[in-house]
């Protein structure tokens, strides 16, 4: 199962440090003991093998232990974003059909008290050992959905382990490594942090909240902690490059940086590579459904400011195919998710040829894959997938809105930002829409621009003219 490498480390180096958050440190032995107590409490609550369990904890030591407790109990975890509006959290809890929710302290007002399990109340205990097949679900990660609601991507033990085993080998992780962790657990980047790192016996160091917004403090923290590796998003690394005072902050221990989730502007990558000449850089690529299907070890001599960088070679045993008609990248292989979770079961997302169609337009040039944007409308905002249809569904449900359209505006710090064009009734205001969206959607889905129109522009076939909407929206920027 997914935790087998971690359990091996617990046996062979139980007193080594596994986790650090601020001044709190946890050994492999202590992490296992606490995770076992949570697993035993879930079993005592009657939760059956394979059933989803939600995690309502902020990223950090307690949440990591809770995730491992869920896996030890034979169930699968559904990490929740505590910053999400209650309406969105309630939808995910209901859609996932969770059988328990792990948290700390008293039950939040919006939750069914019978589902709540306070991890601080779990007594020390050993769970009943569970035989976990490789195809059993380990996690359900909710992303923005084109249907207008969040959509759960169901990841098996096999899929996550295939990626993390490959990644640990690629990066040559050892118990001497000290890896920074900034990815939320509902983000697929976290699978590297949790399972590749701890499976290799290394220590995981949680980047303190707020430090990522202060790049000089971030670089100082990376130096003080002697961090050897970090997997994060390009926008954060670009921010670090230009504002992190790297010239005066030696990061001598930093062996590697991995980035994924959005396009890294080549000029910023050139500057990062120059600032950290001894650090290996890797571009990982793939939607949550594939985790990582492509990778490119950055070759500094090949970086040209006017050219995008490759997404590189097939990763982790994945097979890649480019559809000849559309240029769409199709993927199959061991890291592929089991499907989408809906109504208490997994639904396949494979096409008629048994491939996963990513929606990404790619090409193969000199044996390297290159990314040329999305075929559909999906945006990438600070590493998060954002389906415009989900924002539009919320806006169109507001009384006083006659129609709307969401597009993506390029943003050098976040990749893209949503922008909203809207047609309103006479007594309706943008302020009402802002207030509604703040209650129902996470911060990264909030429109950065608003454009009020008398009517939405349309093409001759009556479809929305998104290109015209883009021109109008960019004109007000």
Number of helices, counting only DSSP H or I runs of 4 residues or more: 12
Rg from C-alpha positions? 22 Å
Backbone structural class:
alpha/beta
Question: Main beta sheet, described?
Answer: 9 strands, mixed
* CATH architectural type of the domain at 379-475: 2-Layer Sandwich
Low confidence ranges: none
Q: What percent of residues adopt helix (DSSP H or I)?
A: 25-40%
Strand order of the largest sheet: 2-1-10-9-11-12-13-14-15
Rough outline = globular
CATH C-level class of the domain at 379-475 is Alpha Beta
* Through-space gap between termini: 50 Å
How would you describe this structure in keywords?
single chain, 477 residues, alpha/beta, GMP Synthetase, Chain A, domain 3, 9-stranded mixed β-sheet, 4-stranded parallel β-sheet, 12 helices, 28% helix, 27% strand, globular
Give a verbal description of the structure.
- The protein is of the alpha/beta class.
- The protein has a domain of 97 residues: GMP Synthetase, Chain A, domain 3.
- The protein contains twelve helices and 26 strands.
- Strand 24 and strand 25 form a beta hairpin.
- The mean pLDDT is 93.
């Amino acid at each position: 199962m997914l935790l087998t490498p971690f359990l091996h480390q617990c046996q062979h180096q139980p007193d080594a440090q596994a986790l650090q958050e601020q001044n709190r440190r946890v050994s492999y032995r202590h992490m296992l003991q606490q995770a076992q107590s949570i697993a035993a409490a879930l079993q005592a609550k009657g939760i059956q093998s394979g059933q989803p369990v939600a995690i309502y904890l902020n990223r950090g030591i307690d949440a990591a232990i809770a995730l491992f407790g869920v896996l030890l109990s034979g169930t699968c975890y559904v990490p929740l974003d505590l910053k999400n509006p209650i309406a969105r959290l309630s939808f995910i809890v209901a859609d996932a059909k969770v059988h328990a929710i792990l948290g700390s302290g008293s039950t939040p007002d919006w939750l069914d008290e019978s589902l709540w399990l306070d991890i601080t109340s779990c007594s020390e205990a050993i769970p009943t050992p569970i035989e976990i097949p490789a195809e059993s679900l380990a996690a359900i990660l909710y992303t923005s959905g084109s249907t207008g609601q969040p959509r759960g991507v169901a990841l098996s033990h096999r899929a996550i382990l295939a990626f993390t085993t490959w990644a640990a080998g690629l990066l040559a992780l050892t118990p001497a490594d000290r890896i920074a962790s900034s990815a939320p657990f509902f983000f697929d980047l976290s699978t590297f942090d949790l399972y590749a790192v701890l499976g290799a016996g290394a220590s995981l160091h949680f980047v303190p909240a707020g430090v990522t917004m202060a790049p000089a403090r971030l670089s100082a923290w990376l130096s003080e902690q002697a961090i050897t590796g970090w997997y994060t998003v390009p926008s954060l690394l670009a921010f670090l490059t230009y504002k992190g005072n790297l010239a005066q902050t030696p990061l001598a221990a930093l062996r590697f940086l991995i980035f994924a989730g959005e396009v890294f502007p080549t000029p910023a990558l050139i500057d990062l590579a120059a600032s950290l000449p001894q650090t290996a850089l890797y571009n990982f690529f793939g939607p949550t459904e594939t985790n990582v299907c492509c990778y490119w070890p950055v070759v500094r001599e090949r970086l040209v400011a006017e050219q995008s960088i490759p997404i590189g070679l097939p990763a982790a045993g994945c097979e890649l195919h480019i559809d000849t008609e559309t240029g769409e990248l199709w993927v199959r292989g061991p890291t592929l998710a089991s499907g989408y979770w809906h109504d208490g079961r997994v639904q396949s997302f494979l096409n008629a040829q048994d491939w996963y169609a990513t929606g990404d337009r790619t090409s193969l040039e000199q044996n390297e894959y290159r990314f040329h944007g999305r075929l559909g409308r999906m945006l990438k905002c600070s590493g998060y997938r954002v389906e415009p249809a989900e924002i539009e569904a919320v806006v169109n449900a507001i009384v006083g809105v006659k129609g709307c359209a969401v597009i993506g505006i390029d943003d050098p710090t976040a990749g893209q930002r949503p922008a909203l064009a809207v047609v309103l009734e006479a007594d309706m205001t943008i302020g009402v829409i802002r207030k509604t969206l703040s209650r129902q959607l996470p911060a990264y889905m909030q429109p950065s621009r608003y454009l009020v129109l008398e009517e939405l522009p349309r093409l001759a076939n009556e479809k929305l003219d998104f290109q015209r909407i883009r021109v109008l929206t960019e004109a007000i920027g």
